[in-house]
Amino acid sequence: MFQDCDLIFSGLDSSVAGDIGLAPLAPPSCATNNSSLGTQFLKVNLAVFSNAKNHRRDPLVPLVVPTVNLSHLDLIPHQRKTNEQQKGFRVCNSNCFVIGIVIPFAAIQAKLGPVDQVSVVTMLAVSGADYYPGVSSKRTPSIDVPFISDEENKTEVEAQKILGSINDDATAFQTQSSLKISAACNRVPVLDGHTACVSQRFAKRPPPSAEDVKQAMRDHTSEAQTLGCPPAPENAITVFDEGDRPQPRLVRDLLRGYSVSVERVRDDESGIFDIKFVALSHNSRLPRWSH
Question: Is this model's pTM higher than 0.70 or not?
Answer without folding.
Answer: yes
